[in-house]
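Data deposition worksheet. Section B asks for the primary sequence of the deposited chain exactly as it was used as input, without tags or linkers unless they were present during the calculation. Section C holds the resulting structure in token form. Section D is free text for depositor observations; keep each observation to a single sentence. Incomplete worksheets are returned to the depositor.
Section A, Depositor: J.P.
Section B:
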Amino acid sequence: MESNNSRIAVLYATAQGSTRDIAEYIAAGLTARTAQVELADIEHAPELTRFDAVVLGSAVHDMDLLPEATSYVRNHREALANLRVWLFSVGLGPALRGPVGRIISRIVPPKIAAVRDSVAPRDYRAFAGCYPRENVSLKARVLYRLMGGGRYGDLRDWAAIGAWVTAIADTLQLPHTGDVIIHPS
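Section C:
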């Protein structure tokens, strides 16, 4: 396949916008490397037969991908099996620190692992999202601290996300263009 003809769908399911922002950043990075990228939320996903690869992301709630992401994967498993797939999730786990947090951040929750394993992606990454302190109950704040969380706000690691985009682009043999993609502010 000619690298400059790579057609990639970047699909996402978001709850509060963090996953959408990451998907937009991924799409911009792959576009900068000359791929033809279509960005869409999962509910408006394009027909997969038009693509060579898919990057699929979802927010994490209750240690599971959002229901629309899980349904999408289940309903499109056959089409996804014929494509190169990368999967990412966005939640609090990767932001946790300390002994407990380091253990928790390495665990892929069983429901997410089941979805991941059903599509056998080239790679799966969990990224931290945003966790604003407003409207978080005292009980939730205490639990967050006990698990190793300490910071609130935008916890996304844009350098790690950028490195993952580079790895995807390199796997797809997309040419280096020298363009630098700046993360959203």
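Section D:
The helical segments are 18-32, 67-75, 77-81, 98-106, 110-119, 138-147, 158-171.
Strands lie at 7-13, 36-41, 53-61, 64-65, 84-91, 123-128, 130-131, 153-154.
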